[in-house]
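Feature request, filed as a ticket because there's no other form

It would be nice if the structure record came with a short human-readable summary line next to the tokens. Right now we just get the raw output. Example of a typical job, pasted below so the devs can see what we mean:
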Amino acid sequence: MENKLIEVPISKIKLVEATSFTYVGEGRYLKQPKIEIKYNDKSYFILDRKVCYSLIKQFEPNITWTEWVQIQNFELSLFKILDDYFTEYNNYIIKVWVEKYNEIQIIYDFEMEDVSFGIMRLNNLKASIMYMSIEALKDWALHTVSDKITISKGDNTIEIQEYEKFVIIRARKYVENGFVQTMPAIKILGIIETIQWYIVYESIIEAKESLEKADKMQTRNIGSIKNTANMKTKEKDDIEHEWFLNSFY
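Raw output as currently delivered:
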């Protein structure tokens, strides 16, 4: 079996099938979901109740197992539930653990971001960004996802991620089957409460302008972009930016 972690933009997912129960014949059903999604022309399957629940928690982090079981017992359409989530959160990027078993790509877990630094501080920062950038980012969607804020428009995403002693701002562009960074990641020493807002704002605008400039550039020999989902921070940032420099002109 081959196991790997991949980053999947919700906007690039096509929901093919989603049922909470599996028919096993003679009028009998098992409480086993069957979900098929397509990403980059490949089918990926969820065939486990706990994995299905983990997928739901990507969008509803506070939902309990009991609440989720009750929703399924009401026989609400799982396809409709997921389709609504994929539409509402189409600017999200999720991290998915996949194993290849008998030529079938099985999703067996989802990577949860580290929330140890507190989502409330990020929500406060998000509110400040929205206040300061209401005109500059009026066409962009802002989301708080665990330990980061994403500001997205189409294939372009600005990430503001908090670590223990610093904050990193990235300009990430989705290209074919992976991500490039259109400028070196910006590292700001300090924690969210102590960083001056104008420094964050200027960095966000710099990332936005970098992405918009890349929209007008030509590409060459992009090929299959290296999967960086499971890399350490600096390695991931360096490789994604290097790929941009080698592929855009």
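Something like this underneath would help us a lot:
The longest helix spans residues 197-215.
The chain has a mean pLDDT of 85.
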